[in-house]
Amino acid sequence: MVKEVERAGIPVVHICTVTPISLTVGANRIVPAIAIPHPLGNPAMTAQEEKAIRRQIVEKALDALQTEVSGQTIF
């Protein structure tokens, strides 16, 4: 699906926990997440720590959207 959206001219960032799968499906902009059961957080952290880590991942994804890529790139 990521490739089809990009073919339509809309840049996509794939936030994922298993980057080799993203590479296999052909995602061009890949941002690694935390862990499979909790991709955007960690229940062992405080609410403030978790919010900070989520913000960091989203900011990285927004930066990736603004970056021209000529092939698959892991940020």
Give a verbal description of the structure:
With 75 residues, this protein is α/β, with parallel strands linked by helices. It has one domain (2-74). Helix content is 43%, strand content 13%. The protein contains 3 helices and 3 strands; from the N terminus they run αβαβαβ. It has a 3-stranded parallel beta sheet, with helices on both faces. The two termini are 20 Å apart.
Question: Strand percentage, roughly?
Answer: 5-15%
What's the Cα radius of gyration? 13 Å
* Termini gap: 20 Å
Mean of all residue-level pLDDT scores: 92
Total tally of structural domains: 1
What structural class do helix, strand and pairing data support? alpha/beta
Low-confidence stretches: none
**Alpha plus pi helix count:** 3
How do the helices and strands line up, and which of them pair or pack?
Elements: H1 2-7, E1 13-16, H2 19-25, E2 29-32, H3 47-65, E3 73-74
Summarize the structure.
With 75 residues, the chain is an alpha/beta fold.
